[in-house]
Amino acid sequence: MTQEVNEVELLRTALKSAGAGAGDARDSNKTLLVPALVDAIRNKRFFLVLDDVWSERAWDKLLKAPFSHGAAGSRVLLTTLHDGVARGMQAAYPLHHVDKLNPEDAWSLLKRQVASSEMEELEIDDTLKDIGMKIIDKCDGLPLAVKVMGGLLRRRGRRRADWEQVLQDFIRSVPPGELNDCFLHYSLLPNNVVFFDNMVIGMWISEGFLHGDTNDLEKLGQDCYKELIYRNLIEPDAGYADERVSSMHDVVRSFAQNLARDEALVVSFRDEITKGALKSQKFLRLSVETNHDEFGWKIIQGQKSLRTLIVIGELKINPGDSLINFSNLRTLHIQDTNYTASLVESLHQLKHLRYIFVYCSDIARLLRNIGKLKLLQHLEIMSENYVKLPDCIVKLGQLRFLNIPVTSIPRRFSRLTNLRNLFMFPAQADGDWCSLQELGPLTQLQELSLKNLENVPATSLATKARLGEKSHLSYLRLECSSRLGEDGLVEDKNGVSEEEQRRTEEVLDELTPPLCLENIDIVGYFGQRLPRWMTSRAASAYERLTIVTVEDLACCTQLPDSLCQLPCLNVFQVARAPVIKRVGPEFVTMQPSSSQRRHGHAFPRLKAMNLLGMVEWEEWEWDQQLNNVPAMPALEELMQLKSVGSFASLVKLELSNTPDLERITFVPRLQKLVIAHCPTMMGVPALQRLHLEDYDMEQLPRYLQQDVSPRHLQLDCSLELLTSIALGKSSPEWSKLSHVQHVKAYADQGDIERKWHVFYTRDPYSFETNIDNSSSSS
């Protein structure tokens, strides 16, 4: 549980854990969710765990009443940093206080943070333990504090003087100057909202935290962002590639907010103390998070010294409310708020404004006077509506970041030569003019997203974009309007002509990226062949490329070759390629001239390969000679393949809707396998965990009895098959399950997911089911 509890999401989570129907758990009405939760737990024993509770409010006002309907013997376990919360929830005494780390355990944790091998740990023991133990003493046995210090020491190195300096500066824990400013500012950002790194860095730039050459501010910001990660002050979200999204642990966040308390305030509509501070103290930075409109705009209008205003959630805004009181504002981030016309009309009066992020339906009105904000550097508007970008946009000479849903851009857009990040840029033509030629002079671009590329009438116009000359470009998205329907197949009514295919192929051939590119997305491309720079030896020149994503290949018949030679490629994903039937040996064939040939590895650093929506895929030809060439030695995640083999480092594998897949071979490090709807599977390797999902199978697969002995087996199947399994030792399926240490099998009933179950443990023996008349048979 976070400091700011989303009541609807909390009720949904409780409902899902209580086994309620999927329909109930998706409801967004609190008044319907509460009685549904009562019905789900009525007269049932439960064990409820509430972790990291910051306030008793969620229990007293939301959960206590519905959970009072459970059966006798139910228990609630809560963890909290505050004894007062436990007492307020009437926890049973004595309270259990978690012991702090003893000095030796804390020293062991610190060493693991700093050293990369056992040999280095021994070296640190011999030379730095005396200073290290003094640092440990300052951490007071708190694991998070030890990890933070470990991250700092890892960056400083292993010189004695560096460790002594860290010990002297411990009170601040981060160095003074720009990194400290960035750290404190990050604590204003709510953890339950996605902030991409370029948004965060844009805020830092607008506040003036980053000092140096104005051409390098984004790089300086990226360095600070990475530094905070290295020091364990923020934690990357594994769901996003390249550490683009991070969060700050609640304990670290509270510490940072305390350090910044004289200048910054994070306020919640529930927190009367912080509401009171708004009336009695003036702040430079204010972050407001609320999930209903009880918190009014009027409350914050007295903060006339604000430089940063962040508002997340619904805020009560009345006619006449405006932004004119915030004349010093540099950063304005308003998300999920009812952004009214009065605020839009007053926006252009904020002459010092450098950063704008808003959700707004009336974009045209907001942009009408945008040219008056001469210092604006970051402009991002989220909306379902698309508009024509006004001519006055070219007056924003300081603009570095632009992300707006637009249908067209004005001529002379090329005057915005300070742009570093440009998204949703539309390709459009008017006579001999094309919007792509406005990109030519924008030599500082680092991230670029182009759309509607099918509108480019001639390759000569695409050449004028001069993409290959943009020596700072690290991310590129090339997008055409998709020709695929919801079923993943080409829509007949939007059939692709040969002329359209030829022109689109030639246009993308001309949009050759620079060799410094690190991340590329190709979306909606409907040529029969891939761009020439993605095939053969040309692709192998992109040695910095780490992520390649291809989506909605309507007509392309092959995957890009030569990617196997890229030394830094970590992620490769194909989503919806309905006409690819075969993947040939060229996909993993090394070119003789490749520098990677010396290493003998195809895809040497690839960690994740996802091949999704390839509905016609029939064959992956793995040439016999390739058996002697190690391929994908670092692969950890593989999704949806027709045939699987020769992946020496694969740890997790998910297979679904692959009816022709028969066998999985040579995956020696595989630990977890998820199989969904693969009816012809004949054999799987030895592994720790196996998850089978198939509601049509009438009996368990034979390979469970023959050569597979997972320690953990999870099964999602039909009620008929589960009823047979529930017979226990008299079941015809018993021989396929009895040797497995832990089995969990489930079946649905209507909208109620996993209503029925069978739980089995081999040693010590235990068999449990809620299917009638099964216990006597087992």
UniProtKB/TrEMBL annotation:
Disease resistance R13L4/SHOC-2-like LRR domain residues: 306-666
Record-linked Gene3D superfamilies: Helical domain of apoptotic protease-activating factors, P-loop containing nucleotide triphosphate hydrolases, Ribonuclease Inhibitor
All residue ranges annotated as the NB-ARC domain in the record: 1-118
Keyword Flavoprotein: no
UniProt KW Repeat keyword: yes
SUPFAM superfamilies: L domain-like, P-loop containing nucleoside triphosphate hydrolases
Entry keyword set: Plant defense, Repeat
Alphabetized InterPro entries for the sequence: Apaf_helical (IPR042197), LRR_dom_sf (IPR032675), LRR_R13L4/SHOC2-like (IPR055414), NB-ARC (IPR002182), P-loop_NTPase (IPR027417), WHD_DRP (IPR058922)
Annotated GO MF terms: ADP binding
Domain Disease resistance protein winged helix: 190-255
GO biological process terms held by the UniProt record: defense response
Name of the molecule in the record: Uncharacterized protein
Organism ancestry: Eukaryota, Viridiplantae, Streptophyta, Embryophyta, Tracheophyta
